[in-house]
Amino acid sequence: MFGDLMGMMGKLKETQEKVEATKKRLDTVLIDENSSDNLLKITLTANREIKSIQIDDSLLEDKEQLEDYLILTLNKAIAKATQINEAEVSAVAKEGMPNIPGMDLFK
């Protein structure tokens, strides 16, 4: 019984290390999102850290329009990054979890 428990604990620790390594790797995965007319481009990591924002000069003339562009484009980029992040992390976590009946945490 204790051997099984120790084995499971070791596997959980190994899985936790793999999840952390995956999160670190996601810092290098870049997502680019453009506004529909390409006047604004945002690049962020799959861990949702903004790396760059490129704004066309024409947007600098209208503050409200620029704010709207930023909100829409940032939200789209964050949604993409979140989807990638969650898929990658949950795949690694699910792979390393012991098969315990009734504990389907990552379906």
Beta-strand content: 15-25%
Helix content class: 55-70%
List unreliable stretches of 5+ residues.
Answer: none
Task: Could you tell me the CATH topology label of the domain at 30-98.
Answer: Ybab, Chain: A
Shape: rod-shaped
> Given this structure, which CATH class of the domain at 30-98 is correct?
Alpha Beta
- CATH level-4 homologous superfamily of the domain at 30-98: Nucleoid-associated protein YbaB-like domain
Helical segment count: 2
Q: Largest sheet, described in full?
A: 3 strands, antiparallel
H/E series: HEEEH
Total strand segments: 3
Q: Whole-number average pLDDT?
A: 86
- Judged by helices, strands and strand pairing, the structural class is alpha+beta
The rounded Rg comes to 20 Å
CATH architecture of the domain at 30-98: 2-Layer Sandwich
- Which sequence of strands runs across the widest sheet? 1-2-3
Alpha-carbon distance between the two ends: 27 Å
GO molecular function: DNA binding
Keywords: Cytoplasm, DNA-binding
Subcellular location: Cytoplasm, Nucleoid
Family: Belongs to the YbaB/EbfC family.
Q: Could you walk me through the main structural features you see in this protein, from its secondary elements to its overall organization?
A:
With 107 residues, the protein is an alpha+beta fold. It has 2 helices and 3 strands. Helix 1 packs antiparallel against helix 2 (63-96). The protein is rod-shaped. The two termini are 27 Å apart.
Layout of strands and helices, then pairs:
Layout: H1 2-26, E1 30-34, E2 40-45, E3 50-55, H2 63-96
Antiparallel strand pairs: 1-2, 2-3
